[in-house]
Amino acid sequence: MQFKDIVGHAALKQSMIKTINEERISHAQMFLGAEGSGALPIALAYIQYLFCTNKGETDSCGKCSQCHRISKLTHPDVHFVYPVALSKEKGVEKSSDLFREFTEVFLNDPYLSLADWMDFIGAENKQPTIAVEESKDILHKMSLMAMEGSYKTMIIWMPEKMNLSTANKLLKVLEEPPDKTLFILVSESSQMLATILSRTQLTKVLRCEESELTEALIEHHGLPLETATAIAKACEGNYRLAQMMVKGEVDAEFNMQRFQTWMRICLNLDGLKLSEWINEVASIGREKQKQFIAFAIKTIRQSILLGLNYPSGINPADADFLNKFSPFINYENGAQIAEELNNAYYAIERNAHTKILFMSVSIKIHNYFPQRKKSA
User: Fold this and answer.
1) Cβ neighbours of residue 198 under 8 Å, at least 6 residues apart?
2) Residue 255 exposure: Cα atoms within 13 Å on the Cβ side
3) Tens digits of per-residue pLDDT, 32-64?
4) Distances in Å between the alpha carbon of 21 and those of 31, 57, 71, 183?
5) 205, 237, 263 — which closes off a domain?
6) Is the pTM of this model over 0.90?
7) Which residue range is the domain that position 157 belongs to?
């Protein structure tokens, strides 16, 4: 994985290169970035540049044996940990039990999401975790000598999925690691043990710029400028979502129709229609539910901006509905609704009961609306 393969983040890439060339490498680092920001591929590109034997000013060479093996996830000194669905029947206790599968899915798409990974291993509806058995494996691997005399490196993807016992067992090695040891934690959420966060150097991986996504969609997917711009605007910096939209795996128009129906039902709290709507949403699967919730959060945000006379970024096809809907949304209740939706997103990730969850959220949204008997 080279820096040139990653969408955007030019300043961050140069900063990383500078720290390596100046030998200012922190032994424990946290790359924090939202889904689709590219935090995981950036972590691998960073390590590849560190190991590269023929570094350039802006990237690793991509040709030496170090680069070749790291790009294929076969380097003996670069280890990976990631959440799995524990299964005694399948003999899955730690991530190394599924390394072949992880290599396959990562090499197919380095921007993969946790849901992509869990779906790939047939565990979409199970709880992903980094269990205590994993910590023993980490400590053992990092206690060994580097096979090629360089850094021993451990990339922990989604450390927020570590249970308490796992995290506690890693505190000492994060604080006092062996010589030439590098831990990189790649996270989408800062909601983890404060003792873990305090032992790492934080690097924030921001969402991609709209212009960067547009350029990538044109270059890598051959889209015309107008289409690429529309997708880049709709996915709000999430390159994984942009890829899914290109492949037709996300239907923004259908999500808008579903959102309109939901908001009209919530405004008047029609119990029968709400029950029918919830049954329909419960049938689409967890990943599509998350996509819909993310779309709903974005649309609420757009409604707030429209009410404040900042209409930029609105899809012309949605303008009619949003112009009618925005009077029901102000900064205060919009923020409350967005928070409820954000909580719902994380609840879905944690296998909440879908029907109960959407019923609860719908009632709360109704109570946040002005008490007016109109529909958008």
Assistant:
1) none
2) 20
3) 998 899 999 999 999 999 999 999 999 999 999
4) 19, 9, 20, 18
5) 205
6) no
7) 3-205
